[in-house]
Design brief:
NTF2-like_dom_sf, Ester cyclase, alpha+beta, 5 strands, five-stranded mixed beta sheet, Nuclear Transport Factor 2, Chain: A, Cyclase_SnoaL-like
């Protein structure tokens, strides 16, 4: 594979991940989710009580938007290595629905994540991620 082919693959992969972050997670465009995620998608780091597949990812996205209707991310940077994209971002939102057993509080939250997603044939096929959910729980539980 030539250097230009690798660069092209990386740029396409970054654009797919950016669309997922901005349009699906940030705007709730679930029709686009279905287009961007491969049917055999595998999440190597699923959240507790979730499945490591496409249905599990969609459930998580809908749960987050249900609890935080203004849920969105600020992407700080992305780095691509071929078909794998690493993204560092901060999610923001206002809790207007129950989340992790915590009643709606109206609190504004933010938490950081780093994730890696693989994009093949224009679709997200794999995910690995780490999120600072402890910080999120602290913000929601604060008196």
């Amino acid at each position: 594979m030539s250097k230009n082919t690798v660069n092209d693959t990386s740029e396409v992969a970054k654009a797919v991940i950016r669309r997922n972050t901005e349009e699906v997670q940030g705007k709730g465009n679930y029709a686009l989710f279905d287009q961007l995620f491969a049917d055999d998608f595998l999440d190597h780091t699923p959240q507790p009580n979730s499945t490591p597949d496409k249905a599990g990812a969609l459930k998580l996205y809908k749960t987050l938007r249900g609890a935080f209707p203004d849920f969105h991310a600020v992407i700080h940077w992305q780095i691509a290595d071929g078909d794998r994209v690493t993204t560092y971002k901060t999610y923001h939102g206002t809790q207007e629905g129950e989340f992790l057993g915590i009643a709606p509080s109206g609190r504004r939250i933010q938490f950081e994540t780093v994730d890696v997603m693989r994009v093949q044939g224009g679709k997200i096929t794999e995910h690995w991620g780490v999120a600072n959910l402890y910080s999120l729980v602290q913000q929601l539980s604060a008196a």
